[in-house]
Fold this protein.
Amino acid sequence: MATTTPDIQGSRGAKSATRPGDRIFSGLSRGSGITLLVIMAAIAVFLTYRAVLAVSDDSTNFFTTFEWNPAGSPPVFGIAVLAFGTVVSSVIAMLIAVPVAIGIALFISHYAPRKLAKPLAYVVDLLAAVPSIIYGLWGAIFLVPYLDGLNKWLDQYLGWTYVFDKSSDGVARNLFTVGILLAIMILPIITNVTREVFLQVPKMHEEAALALGATRWEVIRMSVLPFGRSGIISASMLGLGRALGETMAVAVVLSPSFVLSGHLLDPGGGTFAQNIAAKFNEANEYGRDALIASGLVLFVITLLVNGAARWIIGRRKEYSGAAA
Amino acid sequence: MAKRIDVSGLSAYYGAHKAIDDISMTVEPRSVTAFIGPSGCGKSTFLRTLNRMHEVTPGGRVEGKVMLDDENLYGTNVDPVAVRRTVGMVFQRPNPFPTMSIFDNVAAGLRLNGNYKKSQLADIVERSLKGANLWNEVKDRLNKPGSGLSGGQQQRLCIARAIAVEPDVLLMDEPCSALDPISTLAIEDLIGELKERFTIVIVTHNMQQAARVSDRTAFFNLAAVGQPGKLIELDDTERIFSNPSVQATEDYISGRFG
């Protein structure tokens, strides 16, 4: 007690920066920051270590092999099909979801009467609250049979594009269906984030366009979309992150196979997360390491995508609306 | 070019609240008319009824007539968007489009209005920037963002943007209130030049400014907070500031209230 007293008095005097409250708080926040870094590092080290163990025993090229048989002797497995399926289904999802989400967000923020905008925003929030397994079941039971017809139509009229050429029969448990399902699943998050950004467009920017004689669409084009640009990109990246990592819905809908096919309507293919979920329980220790290696690749892809998004946002920083 | 504004029996509402009551006045072409009055007296609201910007505010509603020469802006078949293309506006805070370059900012209104050739656009942008006394300061960096300019330069950029489309009328809503005295002086000089070509209406809180730049001055007042604002009197600026015909005007001008 006696030794602490001078400290406290000192802290009330010249060195006001070392009050106990300040010290505790800065210690806590610094501790939280360090903990985060330690956890991240621990995950990265764990993934890398197990992945290296598995990949070094792989008898074929890990990146180009169309097969997954880590239990064989020698073990043969590769991520080519998974990487292709993951990227393709996510790209389809983005192509569908981003324009629709921007449309919904604009409708809620700028077109809908207030009485309609609030309930609509609430419904979009609800969509985000549905668990992914439910989406998966809905996709498998409802969406797949309905998409059979669309698939046939696409095959008939757009078959010449190769992408929509359906070379084998079978139900629509394909990457295209997965892409559509993922689009529905990532729609709410993209919509919500872009809507928030659109609502934050300063009134003076919109009035600037209005006063020049801009129509509502022209106001959106001149003021709202440019201001929301970085927000749209961030929102899309959030959605893409979810699409890349989505597991259950894909696992339920897709009939997986280790075939890499550019015919998106053919059943088969696979994604990283779906493959891990499907194989993890029956895999031996070595097989699990192989799955972890594939997980590491997904992690790297996600990092690259995020980095690219940050680069795009930062490239025209001097033009960003936030500066004004 | 430079049309006469003739307002009769104009009232404006925010929802159920009446903001201005039964205003009638005439604004002469090629002149500067200043609106002065205490805060909340509806002078900005009235200004915004002159290019149909008031009704953009949720609940905003207007009754009465605004004749621009012989066209009623509130006529049944009049498109508000078309009105705003002929009645330009400059706002209190400079609001260049932050994502556009200086050139694109000035060209923004032209691009809305129709197809111009590149060379035509460049000519008009140069002429407008010269008209706004900004050309010499920005001619070497037309492709840089407008948000990089100083506040006063941004406001002159907004004026250039407004005059590029050759409006009939130029409305200014306290255009200098966010600017330093030097920039304010630049804008005031500019207003003096612009009135050769446009009908100018300016709202200002600064009575010296009204005295300096305007030919005619309108004094607005409200009976009490919550009551609608009214036009008290409109007269030659010189007369308003020396020998107004209404006692309330004299009280306001001489600082006895407001």
The longest strand of chain A covers residues 68-69. Confidence is low (pLDDT under 50) at residues 1-13 of chain A.
